[in-house]
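User: tokens in, sequence out, please.
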């Protein structure tokens, strides 16, 4: 199914780019955050990916995980963790924010480092953590067992890679970059884990505009798509692209 837009790429282009280890630029929607994230398949991430995300995008480097992966690994949303600890640490209840200003609940979960990292913050360390998370995500998504035990053995928290959890039902209830990027990885036949980072504008000190992000995409030959392209595909249930 061909889906095109005014942006620099089709859904097929985005799927191919992820498979090849390239970036995809993903705009959520005008009515939500109205932000563009750089997206890469977590299993394809190298230190250079992390360098590019922090220098060209400038936002927070996160790993979005499929909801089934979160369940298998035994992790949950940070909001839930705060609330469960709020009886002892009452400030957490006061700080709790159920809904973000742009709508919906936060996808944030815990932060981790892989046990083979040193500080955890270097591009090499973060790339290692991201790739190892992708390996576990593939195991967990296939229900092969043992992923939780490996997670507990191989990762430490807190760390320098922020985890995001896809909501139940994928794009049914929430259509943030977490759900959109994980669904895109599923279409590509890859592990349901993405490295994502918001694109920021150092001149305006705001999010990078869609127009400027699209110009960046063209200059670097990255496909850029809109979230509605993914939502439309999801709703039509045409299955994975080939």
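Assistant: Sequence out:
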């Amino acid at each position: 199914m061909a889906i095109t837009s005014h942006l620099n790429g089709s859904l097929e282009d985005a799927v191919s780019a992820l498979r090849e280890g390239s970036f995809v630029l993903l705009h959520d929607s005008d009515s939500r955050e109205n932000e563009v994230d750089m997206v890469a398949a977590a299993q394809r991430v190298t230190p250079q990916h992390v360098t590019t995300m922090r220098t060209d995008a400038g936002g927070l480097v996160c790993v979005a995980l499929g909801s089934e992966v979160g369940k298998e690994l035994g992790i949950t949303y940070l909001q839930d963790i705060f609330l469960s600890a709020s009886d002892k640490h009452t400030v957490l209840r006061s700080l709790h924010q159920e809904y973000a200003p742009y709508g919906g609940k936060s996808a944030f979960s815990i932060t981790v480092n892989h046990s083979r990292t040193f500080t955890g913050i270097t591009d090499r360390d973060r790339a290692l953590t991201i790739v190892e998370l992708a390996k576990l995500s593939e195991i967990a998504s296939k229900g092969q067992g043992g992923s939780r035990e490996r997670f507990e053995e191989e990762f430490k928290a807190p760390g320098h890679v922020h985890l995001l959890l896809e909501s139940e039902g994928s794009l049914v209830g929430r259509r943030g970059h977490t759900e959109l990027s994980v669904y895109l990885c599923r279409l590509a036949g890859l592990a349901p884990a993405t490295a994502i980072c918001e694109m920021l504008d150092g001149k305006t000190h705001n999010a990078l505009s869609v127009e400027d992000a699209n110009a960046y995409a063209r200059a670097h030959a990255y496909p850029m798509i809109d979230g509605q392209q993914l939502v439309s595909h999801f709703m039509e249930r045409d299955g994975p692209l080939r």
